[in-house]
TrEMBL record:
Component of the replication restart primosome. GO terms for cellular component: primosome complex. It comes from the Bacteria. This is Replication restart protein PriA. Zn(2+) 1 binds at residues 528, 531, 568, 571. Residues 563-718 form the Helicase C-terminal domain. Its cofactor is Zn(2+). GO terms for molecular function: 3'-5' DNA helicase activity; ATP binding; DNA binding; hydrolase activity; zinc ion binding. It comes from Microbacter margulisiae. Belongs to the helicase family. PriA subfamily. Residues 297-465 form the Helicase ATP-binding domain. Initiates the restart of stalled replication forks, which reloads the replicative helicase on sites other than the origin of replication. Recognizes and binds to abandoned replication forks and remodels them to uncover a helicase loading site. Promotes assembly of the primosome at these replication forks. InterPro entries: DEAD/DEAH_box_helicase_dom, Helicase_ATP-bd, Helicase_C-like, P-loop_NTPase, PriA, PriA_3primeBD, PriA_3primeBD_sf, PriA_C.
Length: 821
């Protein structure tokens, strides 16, 4: 079939795909999954993606043609496009939203499409004056972006004339992967003389007689390269040569100038993580692990998805490794998801030891080039078989997934919160596995309520592992009553004497300590002691957080920052008081109490780069630091051998979270952070400071009693109509004018109640009622789990379309959060 039309996905938050005609000259090469340049709206150019090709003319008369193809081959494959469609439908987002979330930005340079002169342009062509203006604006030797051309010609309609130049084949539109993607190279050294010509070699040595340093460098080179021996010549990098010879760059350049040595660039892959040691066998499993592994394989015979509920440090990772080996031996692929980038550091080492270059890493702290390299490798099946990554790796071009591992499946950071599609990577990955007929392994010590329920009901397979690997008892957990400690004056700063003593004890035995507090910055807010004024963000309804190092007040929602004012802006009082507690302040206090201890901090502020994480984690691993202070980043999955004490500074922050999951999350977080203690050698200790020692979750954490937490929670969820009994959909409305959003939300609630009656809650002003200068309202829709949510979603969309057909509400922005966390 010669396709005549293409359905194109645009990188825009608009429903559906758009039909373009396929020009004749492209019809034989165009393929599904290729990127194309198309115009949309008033002459803007975009990079679209072909979802499918067909012969059916659309209803509209003027179908626009595809301008050009950006790829010689598809960059997306069928399972991905199916996955996109599922995601858009389920999470009530547009295909364009999914497209934007899925592709590394290097592959979607909308409006940065590059134009260059065609070097083979027909010299006899004549241009109109407008075309000439564009032509002249394009640099002779360099491609330039459409934005640049619009600026240079000062013409908004530049695109039209670019198009006519394209028709005349005077310019080329390009944006292939290789255009934006630059391979990494290293500088290599080779001989510039003929090694087989003895005479020539002789002369060179003569010439260098008085250039001692150059001679010695040349000899080092000959040695490293084995050039004059009978063996095969080895490649020598510039860096190695300089290191081994101790010579300076100037000496090397001298030899290059004399045309004795020569430099050249060699492309190298960014994917090879340094594998210094030879590959090792996977660790053999102990008795309990072997049993668990066997039941895992058994469960997979009948179930797609299996929950592995194994206590902290039971060796779940080792079981994953065995499962991975089995799958890759069949030639299939594995996706290993972790909730937090911090976790990839340790895991990369553990996995690379066994899997070497079959392992690829993928997450948002990798730059675009590195991500594109992983993408291409998978697309062309160039050798990667296992991807370890954060949530965005579900979008990679897998050809044949055999297994998806979701580590710490309970983690809420699997949920994409900020922008559409608001997907849950665990749930989406289960769907992805389904499309590939792959098995799924959900691993955790503290399952989410939903997952545990699915395991109990038989929807998922279920495997338990109750012993720590070395048979060490789970840590002793105790709570410390802060209120009482303050009353009895048994505190220093934010530390109870009990915690301080425990820390000194651990340090004196040369053991390490983790201190956990779920708030970064120095102090959550500052307040005027005279008038109680609290500085707030200009754009959001939140108080600003004080960061001491930068001496600034920062909004954790939009990043707005301002210097700490000298006096109260409201009453003029000449000091503002710092209130509450953040990780930075804890670090301050700890270093006062333990001046000899080496302390480091792991939170978003210090660890916002890949190297940042690695440095801090490795230093702690190697016991270069004694005390690690951190937010929830330290709570999950990290494996340190020498930690004997975990201190929780203030558990109340977790208890008073305004959310139906607060209790579940507090249990998970406290159990997880406790699990970092006493993993090797002997039983560890955990101290949890709280103002509320009678909180119901504490006895459950202390007794490591997951089941009782699960039971109390299920009862509450049932009573108050929450998941897993009900599915939730949050409808967010926002507008720059508060009145408009208020009326729109009231109106929508009324319409929806006609359809869903009391399953609709709200409208409400969310806890942060204004964000980035937008006023917000939310509605909540609860649907019984045993009912079709598809039908409900459809009705919901129709109702909203009706609302937005009314003039005053057209500009209200509405989005959805399906299964909010
Ligand atoms: N079979 C084994 N052979 C050798 N070492 C093992 C084995 N099983 C576990 N270990 C070691 O025990 C420690 C804990 O194992 P692992 O990190 O896999 O536990 P986990 O269950 O994933 O813990 P968490 O839930 O806390 O992340 C690790 O240092 C691991 O190397
Ligand atoms: Zn803000």
């Amino acid at each position: 079939m010669t396709p005549r039309f293409a359905e194109v996905i645009m990188p825009l938050p608009i429903e559906g795909t758009f039909t373009y005609s396929v020009p004749e000259e492209l019809s034989s090469i165009v393929k599904i999954g290729m990127r194309v340049v198309v115009t949309f709206g008033t002459h803007r150019l975009y990079t679209g993606i072909i979802q499918y090709l067909h012969l059916i003319p659309p209803d509209t008369k003027n179908v626009k043609p595809i301008f050009s193809l950006l790829d010689e081959e598809a960059i997306l494959i069928r399972p991905q496009l199916d996955f996109w469609e599922w995601m858009a439908t389920y999470y009530m987002a547009s295909l364009g939203d999914v497209y934007v979330a899925a592709l590394p930005s290097g592959l979607r340079l909308e409006n940065e499409t590059l134009i260059r002169r065609n070097p083979e342009v027909d010299k006899t062509l004549s241009f109109s004056s407008r075309e000439s203006r564009i032509w002249n604006a394009i640099s002779e030797d360099r491609a330039c972006s459409i934005q640049e051309l619009i600026k240079r010609t000062e013409s908004k309609h530049a695109v039209v004339w670019i198009k006519s130049l394209m028709d005349k084949k005077a310019v080329i539109v390009s944006q292939t992967i290789t255009d934006t993607y630059k391979p990494r190279t290293i500088s290599m050294v080779k001989a510039a003389f003929n090694k087989d010509n003895e005479q020539e070699v002789q002369t060179i040595f003569e010439r260098l007689k008085r250039a001692e340093k150059q001679l010695s460098l040349l000899i080092t080179y000959l040695d490293l390269s084995q050039l004059l021996s009978k063996q095969e010549t080895k490649p020598v990098s510039k860096q190695t040569l300089l290191e081994k010879s101790g010579a300076s760059v100037a000496v090397l350049n001298g030899l290059v100038d004399k045309k004795i040595l020569q430099l050249y660039d060699q492309p190298v892959s960014r994917l090879t993580h340094e594998i210094t040691t030879p590959l090792q066998e996977a660790a053999s499993l102990n008795l309990f692990q072997t049993k668990a592994y066997q039941s895992l394989l058994d469960e997979w015979k009948t179930k797609q998805t299996v929950l592995l509920h194994g206590v902290t440090s039971s060796g779940k990772t080792e079981i994953y490794i065995h499962a991975i080996q089995k799958v890759i031996a069949l030639g299939r692929q594995v996706l290993y998801l972790v909730p937090e980038i911090a976790l990839t550091t340790q895991l990369t080492h553990r996995l690379a030891r066994v899997f070497g270059s079959k392992l690829g890493i993928y997450h948002s702290k990798f730059n675009d080039n590195e991500r594109i390299e992983v993408w291409k490798n998978l697309l062309h099946r160039e050798g990667l078989q296992i991807i370890l990554g954060a949530r965005s790796s579900i979008f990679l071009p897998f050809h044949d997934l055999g297994l998806v591992i979701i580590d710490e499946e309970h983690e809420t950071s699997y949920k994409q919160q900020d922008s559409a599609p608001r997907y849950h990577a665990r749930d989406a990955a289960i769907m992805l596995a389904h499309l590939h007929s792959a098995k799924v392994l959900l691993g955790t010590a503290t399952p989410s309520i939903e997952t545990y329920q699915n395991a109990l009901s038989g929807k998922y397979g279920f495997v338990e592992l109750k012993q720590r690997y070395e048979g060490i008892t789970l840590p002793r957990v105790a709570s410390v009553d802060l209120k009482e400690a303050f009353r009895k004056k048994q505190t220093a700063g934010h530390f109870s004497d009990t915690l301080i003593e425990a820390i000194s004890g651990a340090l004196s035995r040369r053991e390490q300590v983790i201190l956990f507090h779920n708030r970064r910055g120095y102090a959550p807010y500052v307040e005027c002691p005279q008038c109680a004024y609290v500085p707030k963000c200009k754009y959001c309804d939140v108080s600003l957080t004080y960061h001491k190092q930068q001496h600034k007040l920062i909004c954790h929602y939009c990043g707005f920052s301002q210097p700490l004012p000298d006096r109260c802006p409201s009453c003029g009082n000449n000091s503002l008081k710092i209130k509450g507690l953040g990780t930075e302040k804890i670090e301050d206090e700890v270093s006062q109490f333990f001046p000899n201890a080496k302390i480091s901090r792991l939170d978003l502020d210090v660890a916002n780069t890949r190297k940042g994480f690695e440095r801090i984690i490795t230093a702690f691993e190697q016991h270069e630091t004694d005390i690690l202070i951190g937010t929830q980043m330290v709570a999950k999955g990290l494996d340190f051998a020498n930690v004997s004490l975990v201190g929780v500074l203030n558990a109340d922050v977790l208890f008073h979270y305004p959310d139906f999951r607060a209790h579940e999350r507090a249990f998970q977080l406290l159990s997880q952070v406790s699990g970092r203690s006493g993993r090797k050698g002997k039983q560890g200790n955990v101290l949890i400071q709280t103002m509320d020692p009678n909180h119901a979750v504490l006895p459950q954490v202390i007794a490591h009693d997951y089941i009782s937490m699960f039971r109390t929670q299920m009862k509450e969820r049932y009573e108050f109509c929450y998941p897993p009994y009900y599915r939730l959909i949050v409808i967010n409305l926002r507008h720059k004018d508060e009145n408009t959003v208020h009326h729109a939300s009231e109106r929508l609630a009324k319409q929806l109640r006609k359809l869903f009656s009391d399953r609709v809650l709200g409208p409400e002003i969310p806890p942060i009622g204004r964000l980035h200068s937008w006023y917000m309202r939310t509605l909540l829709l609860k649907i019984e789990s045993n009912r079709s949510s598809n039908a409900a979603k459809k009705m919901l969309k129709e109702t909203i379309a009706e609302l937005q057909a009314e003039a005053p509400f057209q500009s209200v922005q509405i989005n959805f959060d399906v299964d909010p966390m």
